[in-house]
Amino acid sequence: MAKYSYSSNTPEIEELASKCISNYHIEPELYTRYDVKRGLRDINGKGVLAGLTDISEVCSTKEVDGEIVPCEGQLFYRGINVKNLVNGFIKDNRFGFEETVYLLLFGYLPNKTQLAEFTSMLCNFRTLPVNFTRDVLMKSPNNDMMNMLARSVLTLYSYDDNPNDISIPNVLRQCLELISLFPVISVYGYQTFSHYKNGESLVIHNPNPKLSTAENILYMLRPNSKYSELEARILDMALVLHAEHGGGNNSTFTTHVVTSSGTDTYSTIAASLGSLKGPKHGGANIKVVQMFEDMMFNVKDWEDEDEVKNYLKNLLNRKAFDNAGLIYGIGHAVYSISDPRAEIFKKFVNKLAVEKGYQKQFGLYSMVERLAPEVIAEQRKIYKGVSANVDFYSGFIYKMLGIPNELFTPLFAMSRIVGWSAHRIEELLNASKIIRPAYKSVSERREYIDLANRG
Questions:
Q1: Tell me, what's the pLDDT at 385?
Q2: How many structural domains is the chain composed of?
Q3: Which phi and psi angles does 280 have, rounded to 5°?
Q4: What's residue 432's pLDDT?
Q5: Which of 101, 193, 200, 436 has the greatest count of CB atoms below 10 A from its CB?
């Protein structure tokens, strides 16, 4: 059979694409007429209630004198304020990600014995199948780490003796394996890509059973396996803060939707990864870093508020960076006054900036965080306040840690796989119906015309 190759800019494809553009348009006015909640959110940003969860709670409003008003953002993991959770880890000078995994999966904080046994279990799961690195990662290096991760997850299905069993013990076992393996697959995938595509030396380290997840990421990623205590602590905190964020975020809702169909764990998590990859979701931290790189190139004086403000206005007016009209890292679908994760991050970003010599860049980030809400309020009609979100500082942290851009979103996935796992189990235990919202058709009825009579 002859094989034809069409690029996206050939006349044939462009002509067919023009038909799509002409025949897929829906008048924006119709969404208002039929009271459609675009993005499953109303005009004030309130989400459509689509389910119940006991795993985490995102709070951005409170009731005052019978009226719902915005408040400082709060995030709770199994009823525990994440700020208190992080402060507990800092107070005792211990790594907290493994403890957070236990809390989210099982509903309560472990004691010392339970935590030690659970950490040991995760360590035992942190081993890829025989020849997986060679046959899956090294033989087909991929320049997109999220696609590589999704492909690897689907391939792990073939290594599972019981992949389709959706009983809770089997699903829990699968989830614990994926939680343990995501850092290994991501780091190895990046290293093999860099070796084959960029000619970099290939240095692969086996995970160290004595180290935490955060330490192991740095240990495996760096050729000399060296890292500072502060670097590992801040990366651990990043994993804790990204682990879960309610059932309504795009990738976690994807987890619920796909799980409700009754499919296997690997297909479900691969779908969630596809969601997280999007620049409007997990890919946002890369956009923040790229935006600041462009800002630092075009703004001559990083301490001049007027010059920085003018750049931010140009961003909103589609005259700077990617011309998308967005200030990346500012604003959130739920939070308005503050994102608690960004607030926690900022307390430690300055420490890392001092250690790494990035104080000047940190000053620019802080200025943009302060000025951006003012500029947005001046330039746009907004229905709720805006503030820095978790992506605003996370990319900056990863950059200071020397983590390549290609691993920014996989780092998010290494953490959020925990929340996805908890929500998959919750969906399996509590739901009996497939998730299927309604779409209203606005098409016109037409008569069928025989092929011979078509012009």
A1: 78
A2: 2
A3: -85, -5
A4: 82
A5: 101
Give the SS3 label for residue 14. helix
User: Is residue 93 one of the residues assigned to a domain?
Assistant: yes
Handedness of CA 132, 134, 140, 142 (dihedral sign): positive
Query: Residue 341 belongs to what domain range?
Result: 284-400
pLDDT at residue 141, as a whole number? 87
How do the residues of the chain divide into helix, strand and coil, expressed in percent and rounded to 5?
55, 5, 35
241 Cβ contact partners less than 8 Å away, ≥ 6 residues apart: 82, 86, 341, 344, 345, 390, 415
The structure tokens 């086996």 sit at 206
84, 214: one domain: yes
Nearest CA among 449, 417, 438 for reference residue 36: 438
Q: Is 67 helix (H, G, I), strand (E, B) or coil?
A: strand
Same domain for 237 and 300?
Answer: no
Residue recorded with tokens 């907290």: 96
**Are residue 320 and residue 263 in the same domain, yes or no?**
no
- List the structure tokens of 430: 């509590």
Which DSSP symbol is given to 41?
Answer: B
| Cβ(190)–Cβ(154) below 8 Å | no
Closest CA relative to residue 107, chosen from 389, 393, 425, 441: 425
**Could you tell me if 362 and 353 are in contact, meaning their C-beta atoms sit under 8 angstroms apart?**
yes
- What predicted TM-score, i.e. pTM, was given to this entire model? 0.93
Radius of gyration for the chain, computed over Cα atoms and rounded to the nearest angstrom = 24
Query: Is residue 439 included in any domain, yes or no?
Result: no
The per-residue pLDDT for range 345-402, each reduced to its tens digit, is 998 899 999 999 999 999 999 999 999 999 999 988 776 779 999 999 999 999 999 9
SS3 state of residue 147: helix
Q: Note the pLDDT tens digit of each residue in 421-455.
A: 999 999 999 978 999 999 999 999 999 999 999 87
